Amino acid sequence: MTLSIGIDIGGTKIAGGVVDADGVVLARHRVESPASDAEAIETAVVEIVTRLSADHDVAAVGVGAAGFIDAARSTVLFAPNIAWRNEPLGTDLGGRLGLPVVIENDGNAAAWGEFVYGAGRDLDSDDMLLVSVGTGVGGGIVAGGELRRGAFGVAGEIGHIRMVHQGRLCGCGNRGCWEPYASGSALVRNVREEAAAGSLIARPVLDRAGGDPDAITGPLVTELAAEGDRFAREQLAELGRWLGEGIASLVAVLDPGLVVVGGGVSAAGDLLLDPLRETFSHALTGRGFRPMPDIRGAELGNDAGMIGAADLARR
Ligand SMILES: [Zn+2]
How far away, in angstroms, is 153 Cα from ligand 1 center? Predict the structure, then answer.
């Protein structure tokens, strides 16, 4: 059976795994990410691959990374968190490893992983949208059974569709993108603001954070919501409504058979997805006169990008 290695370059760690043709991760290795040092990151990837390939006969390596990847899936045109500008990462890694290397945008890799092996694996349709809700809002588009990469390789930046004229500042430098309203960071910021303002309804969350608004995290909000805290539930519901609005716009354009919601915040499950579905069902154009896609939680968790990158490298 052909094996390949998938690498997920994240903000805090670099994770690698040997993946078989069924999407099963046979072996793993991960290291702390060496901050934004491009050279050190490349060396860390080489170390992970060298270690994993010592015990497994692998045919190729797929790397998922945040950023714009060129249409040849080799050069990183731009990365937001690492000093990669027109970086020939695929060529460099291929030369050092002696293996074919495919570079893919992390959201695209995760979408492919979910489409082939996760929430989309039994889908009748060849069209799926992944919306990944974590620190930011990312994702990927599968259309006609292929990743939709666009003319220049940089399609699928769904977190930066424009939602609010002159709205909140986004990490990308624009105002009013979807991301500053619908991300895990938006959730945490809203909860912290309420808590810092002394809002009574935010007291249970603040108490759980030891009285320090800055100690409030997304998982903490989800934990309280799961216990029934009204404020935490309402905050997750509000996030879900923002997501439902944007997904309605994306579905109007793409008409996918399935929308998969992944990323760290999707751990909240139906506390997020029910309000999301409710808003979506009232916002989608032509509702009542058209088939509606299913909206489901992702299934592969943090492994989606690794598994997707490995499969893309094998093909
Ligand atoms: Zn933006």
Answer: 18
pLDDT grade for 81, boundaries at 50, 70 and 90? confident
Q: Cβ distance 40 to 28 under 8 Å? A: no
Burial letters 214-252, b for 16+ CB under 10 A, else e: eebbbebbbbbbeeebebbbebbbbbbbbbbbbbbbbbe
Distance 129 CA to ligand 1 centre (A): 19
Distance separating alpha carbons of residues 236 and 222, to the nearest angstrom: 8
CATH number for the domain whose boundaries are 125-298: 3.30.420.40
> Would you place residue 37 in the very low, low, confident or very high pLDDT band (cuts 50, 70, 90)?
confident
Closest CA to 64 of 104, 28, 107: 104
Homologous superfamily assigned to 3-112+303-314: ATPase, nucleotide binding domain (3.30.420.40)
Among left, alpha and beta (phi > 0; psi -120 to 50; other), residue 207 is alpha
Task: Indicate whether 11 pLDDT > 90.
Answer: no
Other residues' Cβ atoms within 10 Å of the Cβ of residue 80: 13
Note whether 3-112+303-314 and 125-298 share their fold.
Answer: yes
Residue 170: how many CB atoms within 10 A of its CB?
A: 21
Domain boundaries, the chain: 3-112+303-314, 125-298
For ligand 1, the distance from its centroid to the CA atom of residue 178, given in whole angstroms, is 7
Number of other residues whose CB lies within 10 A of the CB of residue 107:
28
The H or E element that residue 270 is part of is: helix 270-283
66 C-alpha to ligand 1 centroid (Å):
14
How high does pLDDT run on average in the chain? 96
Q: CA distances (Å), 91 to each of 5, 17, 52, 58, 102, in order? A: 16, 21, 20, 18, 9
